[in-house]
Design brief:
The chain has 308 residues and is of the alpha/beta class. The chain contains 10 helices and 14 strands.
Length: 308
């Protein structure tokens, strides 16, 4: 943290006397300044968390006729944007302490023990843990070279897209991309240049996709784009053509001018598959058809060939 940081705190406390004391303690913290919003009910807390962004939540274990755990149960603990929650209890209770730990709360403190040093340290530790969680999630779900979603995240996103499309009786296109002769770049110019090329490919790919589409790197020189639901077929063809054209333009990398082409295989949900594995398998078969056709083009799964 910098010398003076401003953190937004949601204080869930129905007793004004205790809320005033906690705000005085926060004001006494030496290295951090706080902007505090106080709410007195679980419903108000839920609305505030839905409408605004907070760095930390300080939650009384008893709020009116409910408990702090009633709020915790309504929240999606897997939400990466959910701020850390520190429970502040009226009395020391090992059972509540353990329940707070099991619920994934950042800390459990007792009101009568609170002081600026203790509360500031608890908040700092909670924020540091949250930051580390974000970094681990980034490592787990995003490709470190291109910053695109990786295969694991693509798996999740595609399953979600399939479920949503099936429920809405809609369709979408999956485009599997492979750089032609990429191995030659690594073999002749070295892996650093190859890595730089992959980064530039990812950047161009992101410029091609629109709202509702998503792109990912599956590994090596293989990428994938999943189009938005119910895009007209002419627009799907235009997007594939744009991708092939954009990725084939010259790359100026580390004093080298590189030209490469891209082959694309397209599968459409639900015509070419209604499951994750079937869609990928059929897109892969279409990709091989594109490569057999001379590369730098695209093919649709099991249908008449269409050149870009």
């Amino acid at each position: 943290m910098s010398d003076v940081d401003y953190l937004c705190v949601l204080l869930v406390e129905d007793r004004d006397e205790d809320a005033t004391r906690i705000q005085r303690i926060l004001a006494g913290c030496r290295d951090i300044q706080f902007v505090v919003e106080q709410v007195g009910t679980v419903d108000e807390a839920c609305r505030s968390l839905a409408d605004d962004t907070y760095d930390i939540v300080l939650l009384n274990d008893q709020v009116g006729g409910t408990t702090g755990f009633d709020l915790v149960e309504t929240l999606d603990q897997g939400d990466p944007f959910l701020p850390p929650i520190i429970m502040i209890a009226e009395h020391e209770d090992r059972g509540v302490d353990l329940a707070a730990q099991d619920a994934g709360l950042a800390d459990y403190l007792v009101k009568r023990h609170l002081n600026p040093s203790l509360l500031e340290r608890s908040i700092r530790y909670a924020l540091e843990r949250k930051d580390n969680e974000h970094k681990l999630q980034r490592l787990a779900y995003f490709d470190q070279l291109t910053e695109l979603p990786n295969r694991a995240q693509f798996n999740n996103l595609l399953v979600e897209r399939i479920d949503a499309a099936a429920a809405a009786d809609s369709s979408f296109a999956l485009m599997l991309l492979d750089l032609d002769h990429f191995k030659n770049v690594n073999d002749t110019l070295g892996h650093p240049v190859g890595d730089e090329l992959l980064q530039r490919v990812a950047q161009r790919l992101q410029l091609c996709v629109e709202h509702g589409d998503f792109a990912a790197r599956l590994g090596g020189d293989e990428f994938v784009v999943v189009g938005q639901n119910d895009r007209p077929w002419d627009e799907v063809k235009a997007l594939v053509a744009e991708i092939i054209s954009s990725l084939s333009e010259i790359y100026r990398l580390s004093a080298h001018d590189i030209t490469t082409t891209t082959s694309v295989g397209v599968a459409v949900f639900p015509e070419d598959g209604t499951t994750y594995s079937d869609l990928l398998k059929n897109a892969d078969l279409a990709l091989y058809r594109a490569k057999d056709a001379g590369r730098g083009t695209w093919r649709l799964c099991d249908r008449e060939p269409v050149t870009a």
